[in-house]
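Researcher: First entry.
Model:
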Amino acid sequence: MADFKHTATFTGTEPISLDEAKAYLRVSTTADNAYITSLISTARETIEKDTNTALVTNSYKEYLDGFPVSNGGIIDLQVSGALNTSTPVSISYMGSDSVTHDITLVLDTDFVSGEFRGRPRLQPINVWATARDLIGSVKISYTIDPIVATELPLIQAMYLLISHFYDNRSPIVYGSVKEMPIGYKKLIRPYKNFYF
Protein backbone atom coordinates (compact mmCIF):
# COMPACT_ATOMS: atom_id res chain seq x y z
CA MET A 1 0.00 0.00 0.00
CA ALA A 2 1.32 3.43 -0.89
CA ASP A 3 1.94 5.83 1.96
CA PHE A 4 1.08 8.98 0.05
CA LYS A 5 1.01 10.53 -3.37
CA HIS A 6 1.48 13.95 -4.83
CA THR A 7 1.01 15.42 -8.22
CA ALA A 8 3.12 17.55 -10.47
CA THR A 9 1.99 21.10 -11.09
CA PHE A 10 -0.78 20.94 -13.68
CA THR A 11 -0.35 23.27 -16.66
CA GLY A 12 -3.01 21.97 -19.08
CA THR A 13 -6.62 22.87 -19.80
CA GLU A 14 -9.06 22.68 -16.90
CA PRO A 15 -12.40 20.86 -17.31
CA ILE A 16 -14.21 24.19 -16.80
CA SER A 17 -13.10 27.31 -18.66
CA LEU A 18 -12.93 30.79 -17.17
CA ASP A 19 -15.87 31.90 -19.34
CA GLU A 20 -17.99 28.93 -18.19
CA ALA A 21 -17.21 29.64 -14.54
CA LYS A 22 -17.98 33.35 -14.93
CA ALA A 23 -21.29 32.54 -16.64
CA TYR A 24 -22.20 30.20 -13.76
CA LEU A 25 -21.26 32.87 -11.20
CA ARG A 26 -23.02 35.57 -13.25
CA VAL A 27 -19.87 37.70 -13.26
CA SER A 28 -19.45 40.03 -16.22
CA THR A 29 -16.39 42.05 -15.19
CA THR A 30 -12.75 41.04 -15.61
CA ALA A 31 -11.65 42.23 -12.16
CA ASP A 32 -11.86 38.74 -10.62
CA ASN A 33 -10.53 36.73 -13.58
CA ALA A 34 -7.33 35.65 -11.81
CA TYR A 35 -9.23 34.74 -8.65
CA ILE A 36 -11.87 32.72 -10.52
CA THR A 37 -9.13 30.95 -12.51
CA SER A 38 -7.49 29.91 -9.23
CA LEU A 39 -10.86 28.70 -7.91
CA ILE A 40 -11.29 26.46 -10.96
CA SER A 41 -7.96 24.76 -10.19
CA THR A 42 -8.78 24.58 -6.49
CA ALA A 43 -12.16 22.97 -7.19
CA ARG A 44 -10.62 20.36 -9.51
CA GLU A 45 -7.82 19.53 -7.09
CA THR A 46 -10.31 19.24 -4.21
CA ILE A 47 -12.48 16.80 -6.15
CA GLU A 48 -9.45 14.79 -7.25
CA LYS A 49 -8.29 14.50 -3.63
CA ASP A 50 -11.79 13.79 -2.28
CA THR A 51 -12.36 11.01 -4.83
CA ASN A 52 -8.81 9.84 -5.72
CA THR A 53 -9.99 10.20 -9.32
CA ALA A 54 -8.08 12.03 -12.06
CA LEU A 55 -10.04 14.73 -13.86
CA VAL A 56 -7.08 15.82 -16.00
CA THR A 57 -3.93 14.12 -17.25
CA ASN A 58 -1.31 14.54 -14.55
CA SER A 59 1.78 12.93 -13.05
CA TYR A 60 1.83 11.23 -9.67
CA LYS A 61 4.36 9.77 -7.26
CA GLU A 62 3.59 7.10 -4.73
CA TYR A 63 5.83 5.77 -2.00
CA LEU A 64 5.72 2.18 -0.77
CA ASP A 65 7.45 0.50 2.14
CA GLY A 66 8.96 -2.11 -0.18
CA PHE A 67 7.62 -4.12 -3.10
CA PRO A 68 4.54 -6.29 -2.46
CA VAL A 69 5.26 -10.00 -2.22
CA SER A 70 1.73 -11.36 -1.91
CA ASN A 71 -0.94 -11.40 -4.64
CA GLY A 72 1.66 -11.92 -7.37
CA GLY A 73 3.44 -8.67 -6.53
CA ILE A 74 0.59 -6.59 -7.97
CA ILE A 75 0.81 -2.88 -7.20
CA ASP A 76 -2.59 -1.16 -7.20
CA LEU A 77 -2.06 2.53 -7.83
CA GLN A 78 -4.07 4.99 -5.77
CA VAL A 79 -5.50 7.27 -8.46
CA SER A 80 -8.47 6.13 -10.56
CA GLY A 81 -8.04 6.69 -14.26
CA ALA A 82 -6.21 5.14 -17.18
CA LEU A 83 -2.48 4.56 -16.96
CA ASN A 84 -0.86 6.71 -19.64
CA THR A 85 1.35 4.19 -21.43
CA SER A 86 2.97 6.82 -23.67
CA THR A 87 4.68 8.21 -20.57
CA PRO A 88 7.10 5.81 -18.91
CA VAL A 89 6.45 4.36 -15.49
CA SER A 90 9.58 4.67 -13.41
CA ILE A 91 10.57 3.16 -10.10
CA SER A 92 13.27 4.30 -7.75
CA TYR A 93 14.02 2.02 -4.83
CA MET A 94 16.54 1.52 -2.07
CA GLY A 95 17.93 -1.96 -2.64
CA SER A 96 19.08 -4.43 -0.02
CA ASP A 97 22.61 -3.23 -0.91
CA SER A 98 21.66 0.26 0.45
CA VAL A 99 22.06 1.71 -3.05
CA THR A 100 19.28 3.63 -4.79
CA HIS A 101 18.31 2.03 -8.10
CA ASP A 102 16.37 3.89 -10.80
CA ILE A 103 14.58 1.89 -13.48
CA THR A 104 12.17 2.75 -16.25
CA LEU A 105 9.58 0.02 -16.71
CA VAL A 106 8.69 -1.23 -20.18
CA LEU A 107 5.07 -2.28 -20.71
CA ASP A 108 4.69 -5.98 -21.58
CA THR A 109 8.38 -6.55 -20.84
CA ASP A 110 8.67 -5.57 -17.17
CA PHE A 111 5.00 -5.36 -16.25
CA VAL A 112 1.45 -5.88 -17.46
CA SER A 113 -1.00 -3.05 -16.99
CA GLY A 114 -4.40 -3.90 -15.62
CA GLU A 115 -7.23 -2.31 -13.70
CA PHE A 116 -9.04 -3.02 -10.45
CA ARG A 117 -12.11 -1.00 -9.42
CA GLY A 118 -11.11 1.82 -11.73
CA ARG A 119 -7.52 2.00 -10.45
CA PRO A 120 -4.59 1.01 -12.65
CA ARG A 121 -2.44 -1.85 -11.46
CA LEU A 122 1.06 -2.96 -12.26
CA GLN A 123 1.68 -6.69 -12.36
CA PRO A 124 5.32 -7.73 -12.77
CA ILE A 125 6.19 -10.13 -15.58
CA ASN A 126 8.76 -11.81 -13.30
CA VAL A 127 9.21 -10.49 -9.76
CA TRP A 128 10.06 -7.08 -8.40
CA ALA A 129 13.55 -6.46 -7.09
CA THR A 130 14.26 -6.71 -3.38
CA ALA A 131 13.95 -3.36 -1.67
CA ARG A 132 14.96 -2.50 1.86
CA ASP A 133 12.18 -2.66 4.40
CA LEU A 134 12.06 1.08 4.99
CA ILE A 135 9.30 3.65 4.99
CA GLY A 136 9.07 5.02 1.47
CA SER A 137 11.88 2.83 0.11
CA VAL A 138 10.07 2.47 -3.24
CA LYS A 139 8.96 5.48 -5.30
CA ILE A 140 6.72 4.94 -8.33
CA SER A 141 6.27 7.77 -10.84
CA TYR A 142 3.48 7.53 -13.40
CA THR A 143 0.96 9.54 -15.43
CA ILE A 144 -2.81 9.04 -15.33
CA ASP A 145 -5.31 10.04 -18.00
CA PRO A 146 -8.85 10.85 -16.83
CA ILE A 147 -11.65 8.49 -17.65
CA VAL A 148 -14.43 10.56 -16.08
CA ALA A 149 -13.37 14.12 -16.94
CA THR A 150 -16.61 14.80 -18.79
CA GLU A 151 -18.88 13.19 -16.19
CA LEU A 152 -21.60 15.76 -15.52
CA PRO A 153 -21.88 15.16 -11.73
CA LEU A 154 -18.18 15.89 -11.19
CA ILE A 155 -18.37 19.00 -13.37
CA GLN A 156 -21.44 20.12 -11.39
CA ALA A 157 -19.52 19.49 -8.15
CA MET A 158 -16.75 21.73 -9.48
CA TYR A 159 -19.29 24.48 -10.14
CA LEU A 160 -20.64 24.12 -6.59
CA LEU A 161 -17.16 24.47 -5.10
CA ILE A 162 -16.28 27.43 -7.32
CA SER A 163 -19.49 29.18 -6.31
CA HIS A 164 -19.02 28.34 -2.62
CA PHE A 165 -15.44 29.65 -2.55
CA TYR A 166 -16.31 32.74 -4.60
CA ASP A 167 -19.20 33.68 -2.31
CA ASN A 168 -17.31 32.91 0.91
CA ARG A 169 -13.95 34.62 0.61
CA SER A 170 -13.46 35.28 4.29
CA PRO A 171 -12.72 32.72 7.00
CA ILE A 172 -15.18 34.61 9.21
CA VAL A 173 -18.91 34.44 8.51
CA TYR A 174 -21.22 36.94 10.14
CA GLY A 175 -24.59 35.50 11.06
CA SER A 176 -25.10 31.77 10.88
CA VAL A 177 -22.28 29.37 10.09
CA LYS A 178 -23.02 27.28 7.00
CA GLU A 179 -21.37 24.11 5.77
CA MET A 180 -20.79 23.33 2.12
CA PRO A 181 -24.12 22.11 0.69
CA ILE A 182 -24.76 18.39 0.98
CA GLY A 183 -25.27 18.31 -2.78
CA TYR A 184 -21.49 18.30 -3.27
CA LYS A 185 -21.07 15.10 -1.26
CA LYS A 186 -23.94 13.43 -3.11
CA LEU A 187 -22.43 14.35 -6.48
CA ILE A 188 -18.96 12.96 -5.77
CA ARG A 189 -19.97 9.90 -3.72
CA PRO A 190 -20.42 7.48 -6.67
CA TYR A 191 -16.95 8.41 -7.97
CA LYS A 192 -15.08 8.09 -4.68
CA ASN A 193 -12.22 5.67 -4.91
CA PHE A 194 -11.82 4.10 -1.47
CA TYR A 195 -8.18 3.17 -1.29
CA PHE A 196 -7.31 0.55 1.30
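Researcher: Second entry.
Model:
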Amino acid sequence: EDEPLLRKNIAISLRRGGYEVMEASTGAEAWTILNVSSIDLLILDIGLPDYDGLDLLREIRAIHPQLPAIVMTARDAPEMENRAIESGASVFFTKPIALRVLKAEIRNIQENRYCGQTGNKQQ
Protein backbone atom coordinates (compact mmCIF):
# COMPACT_ATOMS: atom_id res chain seq x y z
CA GLU A 1 0.00 0.00 0.00
CA ASP A 2 1.49 3.32 -1.04
CA GLU A 3 -0.86 5.49 1.06
CA PRO A 4 1.06 5.90 4.33
CA LEU A 5 -1.97 6.51 6.55
CA LEU A 6 -3.94 3.54 5.20
CA ARG A 7 -0.87 1.27 5.33
CA LYS A 8 -0.17 2.26 8.94
CA ASN A 9 -3.81 1.81 9.98
CA ILE A 10 -3.94 -1.66 8.47
CA ALA A 11 -0.61 -2.61 10.03
CA ILE A 12 -1.56 -1.30 13.49
CA SER A 13 -4.91 -3.07 13.40
CA LEU A 14 -3.36 -6.37 12.34
CA ARG A 15 -0.58 -6.11 14.93
CA ARG A 16 -3.19 -5.53 17.62
CA GLY A 17 -4.85 -8.69 16.36
CA GLY A 18 -1.64 -10.63 17.00
CA TYR A 19 -0.25 -10.69 13.47
CA GLU A 20 3.35 -9.98 12.53
CA VAL A 21 3.29 -7.34 9.79
CA MET A 22 5.94 -6.17 7.34
CA GLU A 23 5.11 -3.05 5.37
CA ALA A 24 6.04 -1.98 1.86
CA SER A 25 5.06 1.21 0.04
CA THR A 26 6.41 0.12 -3.35
CA GLY A 27 6.69 -3.02 -5.42
CA ALA A 28 10.47 -2.95 -5.00
CA GLU A 29 10.09 -2.93 -1.21
CA ALA A 30 7.65 -5.83 -1.46
CA TRP A 31 10.19 -7.83 -3.50
CA THR A 32 12.85 -7.14 -0.87
CA ILE A 33 10.58 -8.50 1.85
CA LEU A 34 9.69 -11.56 -0.22
CA ASN A 35 13.36 -12.27 -0.92
CA VAL A 36 14.49 -12.16 2.71
CA SER A 37 11.43 -13.26 4.69
CA SER A 38 8.95 -16.06 4.81
CA ILE A 39 5.43 -14.67 4.71
CA ASP A 40 2.06 -16.35 5.05
CA LEU A 41 -0.16 -13.76 3.36
CA LEU A 42 0.21 -10.86 0.96
CA ILE A 43 -2.01 -7.77 1.06
CA LEU A 44 -1.41 -5.88 -2.16
CA ASP A 45 -2.66 -2.59 -3.60
CA ILE A 46 -3.02 -2.47 -7.37
CA GLY A 47 -1.91 1.16 -7.58
CA LEU A 48 1.74 1.26 -6.57
CA PRO A 49 4.10 4.08 -7.56
CA ASP A 50 6.65 1.80 -9.25
CA TYR A 51 4.59 -1.23 -10.28
CA ASP A 52 1.19 -2.22 -11.54
CA GLY A 53 0.07 -4.36 -8.61
CA LEU A 54 -1.40 -7.03 -10.89
CA ASP A 55 1.87 -7.37 -12.80
CA LEU A 56 3.64 -7.69 -9.45
CA LEU A 57 1.15 -10.32 -8.33
CA ARG A 58 1.70 -12.39 -11.48
CA GLU A 59 5.47 -12.25 -10.92
CA ILE A 60 5.06 -13.23 -7.27
CA ARG A 61 2.74 -16.11 -8.27
CA ALA A 62 5.48 -17.51 -10.52
CA ILE A 63 7.75 -17.88 -7.48
CA HIS A 64 5.20 -18.33 -4.67
CA PRO A 65 2.20 -20.05 -6.28
CA GLN A 66 0.54 -21.01 -2.97
CA LEU A 67 0.90 -17.63 -1.21
CA PRO A 68 -2.58 -16.24 -0.45
CA ALA A 69 -3.01 -12.70 -1.75
CA ILE A 70 -5.60 -10.12 -0.81
CA VAL A 71 -5.75 -7.47 -3.52
CA MET A 72 -7.28 -4.05 -3.05
CA THR A 73 -7.79 -0.98 -5.18
CA ALA A 74 -9.62 2.32 -5.25
CA ARG A 75 -10.60 1.61 -8.86
CA ASP A 76 -14.18 0.39 -8.60
CA ALA A 77 -14.71 -1.52 -11.82
CA PRO A 78 -15.98 -5.08 -12.34
CA GLU A 79 -13.23 -5.85 -14.84
CA MET A 80 -10.62 -4.91 -12.21
CA GLU A 81 -11.86 -7.68 -9.92
CA ASN A 82 -11.79 -10.16 -12.81
CA ARG A 83 -8.22 -9.13 -13.70
CA ALA A 84 -7.15 -9.45 -10.07
CA ILE A 85 -8.58 -12.96 -9.72
CA GLU A 86 -7.05 -14.00 -13.06
CA SER A 87 -3.70 -12.65 -11.83
CA GLY A 88 -3.85 -14.84 -8.74
CA ALA A 89 -5.71 -12.87 -6.08
CA SER A 90 -7.34 -14.99 -3.40
CA VAL A 91 -9.63 -12.12 -2.41
CA PHE A 92 -10.42 -8.73 -3.96
CA PHE A 93 -11.56 -5.56 -2.15
CA THR A 94 -12.45 -2.10 -3.35
CA LYS A 95 -11.18 0.62 -1.01
CA PRO A 96 -12.08 1.87 1.47
CA ILE A 97 -11.84 -1.40 3.36
CA ALA A 98 -13.45 -1.95 6.74
CA LEU A 99 -10.67 -3.34 8.92
CA ARG A 100 -13.04 -5.81 10.60
CA VAL A 101 -13.91 -7.21 7.15
CA LEU A 102 -10.23 -7.45 6.21
CA LYS A 103 -9.43 -9.27 9.47
CA ALA A 104 -12.35 -11.64 8.95
CA GLU A 105 -11.07 -12.50 5.47
CA ILE A 106 -7.57 -13.09 6.82
CA ARG A 107 -8.99 -15.47 9.44
CA ASN A 108 -10.97 -17.22 6.71
CA ILE A 109 -7.83 -17.66 4.59
CA GLN A 110 -5.94 -19.01 7.61
CA GLU A 111 -8.71 -21.44 8.49
CA ASN A 112 -8.95 -22.70 4.92
CA ARG A 113 -5.20 -23.09 4.76
CA TYR A 114 -5.12 -24.97 8.08
CA CYS A 115 -7.99 -27.24 7.03
CA GLY A 116 -6.20 -27.96 3.76
CA GLN A 117 -2.97 -28.81 5.54
CA THR A 118 -4.81 -30.98 8.05
CA GLY A 119 -6.67 -32.72 5.22
CA ASN A 120 -3.42 -33.41 3.40
CA LYS A 121 -1.90 -35.00 6.51
CA GLN A 122 -4.83 -37.37 6.91
CA GLN A 123 -4.66 -38.73 3.39
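Model: Note on the second entry: Residues 78 and 88 are 16 Å apart (CA to CA).
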